[in-house]
Amino acid sequence: MTKSELIEVIAKKQSNLSHKDIELAVKTILEQMTRTLEERERIEIRGFGSFSLHLRSARLGRNPKTGEPVKLPEKSVPHFKAGKELRERVNISSKTSKTSKTSKTKKGKQRSKKR
User: Which of 8, 47, 70, 90 could be stapled to 85 by a disulfide with Cβ–Cβ 3.0 to 4.6 Å?
Assistant: First the structure.
């Protein structure tokens, strides 16, 4: 789902709010989350998950075109950890869809059904 699609879904569900107000709210929330991570702070949304930064240490990489070694500096990367409620809801829906699309072989391994 893209940001535009999210705005559209909310606009359909919240007909009492203008499209511009919803767009402003979504953009404001995302901007504030970005600023919070820039300040090296953790974001926790109970039941949904948390956003934090993980430090990737400096390492030696390779230029894919030439194969030459390249020094890569350390950097921070955004990390999302799903909350318990989100994990449970995703697993419930994936169990439902998996049972209709997969079957087990004689050895107990899952195999996709041909369509």
Answer: 47
Which residue spans within the chain are E strands per DSSP? 43-45, 49-56, 59-62, 69-72, 75-82, 102-104, 110-112
Q: Which region holds residue 47: left if phi is over 0, alpha if psi is between -120 and 50, else beta? A: left
Would you say residue 66 has pLDDT above 70? yes
Residue whose C-alpha is closest to residue 55's, from 71, 68, 37: 37
Is 70 exceeded by the pLDDT of residue 69?
Answer: yes
CA 70 – CA 61 distance, rounded (Å):
5
| Domains with residue ranges and CATH for the chain | 1-41 (4.10.520.10), 42-83 (4.10.520.10)
Instruction: Kindly tell me if the per-residue pLDDT of 115 is higher than 50.
Output: no
What is the rounded distance in angstroms from the CA atom of residue 66 to the CA atom of residue 64? 6
Query: Residue 66, class by beta-carbon neighbours within 10 Å (0-12 exposed, 13-18 middle, 19+ buried)?
Result: exposed
